[in-house]
Inverse folding.
C-alpha cells in the first residue's frame, strides 16, 4: 500500500477532533495529499448509519446492535474511501477507527474483546493504521470539561463517569499491547501544547 493511515483516538472531551483538524491543515500546507475522515461517517452510507447510532431518539439500543452498526459504517468507509485513497498514495487521517470499538463496546460496554478483534479485522479487510495517536485525559479532566460544556449544569451521573473510566483504561491497555503503533499524548494541557506534541510525533514518524 502506497499511502499512510494515521488515526486519532481518545475519550469524549479529549480534544482529539481539534488535533486531527490541526494535523490535516498542517500536512496540507506542507504539500501532502491528505484527507480527513471521521468515524462513524466519512461516506454517504456511513453518515446515514451515524445518524442511527447517534440519534437521541434511539434509546435502548442493544450493545451488539451498536457494535454491528459501527462495524457496518466502518466497512463501508474502508472499502469506498480509505482503501482507494491509500492506493492513490494519499495520507489519510481518521478521527476514530477500530480501536474505538474495542475501547467503547469492548472495555466500556463489556462485549467480548476477541469477538470485536475479529469483527474489526473483517470490517477493515485486515488494514492497520501506520500510526495511532491516543489523546489521553484523566477522568477528573473529563468530568470537569463535561460539566463546563453542559449548559444546564446537570449533575453528572456516576454511571457515565464509570463508563468513561473503563473506556480510558481500555485505551491505555490497547496502547500498551501495541507500543509500536501507538503514541500516547497527554491531552489535559492547552490546545497548542498538545498540538506541539502531535506535530513533533507526526514529523518524526514521516521522517521515518
Ligand atoms: P462523535 O460525536 O463523533 O464524538 P467524538 O468527537 O468524541 O468522536 O461521536 C462518536 C461517538 O461514537 C463517541 O461517543 C464514541 C462512539 N464510538 C463507539 O462507541 N464505537 C466506535 O467504534 C466508534 C467509531 C465511535
Amino acid at each position: 500500500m502506497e499511502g499512510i493511515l494515521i488515526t486519532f483516538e481518545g475519550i469524549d472531551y479529549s480534544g482529539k477532533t481539534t488535533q486531527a483538524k490541526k494535523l490535516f491543515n498542517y500536512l496540507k500546507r506542507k504539500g501532502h495529499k491528505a484527507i480527513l475522515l471521521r468515524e462513524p461517517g466519512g461516506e454517504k452510507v456511513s453518515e446515514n448509519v451515524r445518524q442511527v447510532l447517534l440519534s437521541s431518539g434511539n434509546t435502548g439500543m442493544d450493545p451488539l446492535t451498536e457494535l454491528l452498526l459501527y462495524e457496518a459504517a466502518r466497512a463501508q468507509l474502508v472499502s469506498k474511501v480509505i482503501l482507494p485513497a491509500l492506493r492513490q498514495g494519499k495520507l489519510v487521517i481518521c478521527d476514530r477507527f477500530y480501536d474505538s470499538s474495542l475501547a467503547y463496546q469492548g472495555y466500556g460496554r463489556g462485549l467480548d474483546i476477541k469477538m470485536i478483534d475479529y469483527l474489526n479485522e473483517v470490517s477493515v479487510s485486515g488494514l492497520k493504521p501506520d500510526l495511532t495517536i491516543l489523546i489521553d485525559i484523566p477522568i477528573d479532566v473529563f468530568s470537569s470539561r463535561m460539566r463546563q460544556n453542559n449548559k444546564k449544569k446537570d449533575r453528572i451521573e456516576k454511571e457515565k463517569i464509570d463508563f468513561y473510566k473503563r473506556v480510558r483504561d481500555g485505551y491505555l491497555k490497547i496502547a500498551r499491547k501495541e507500543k509500536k503503533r501507538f503514541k500516547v499524548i497527554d491531552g489535559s494541557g492547552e490546545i497548542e501544547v498538545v498540538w506541539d506534541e502531535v506535530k513533533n510525533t507526526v514529523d518524526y514518524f514521516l521522517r521515518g
Notes: The beta strands are 4-9, 34-38, 91-95, 131-136, 182-186.
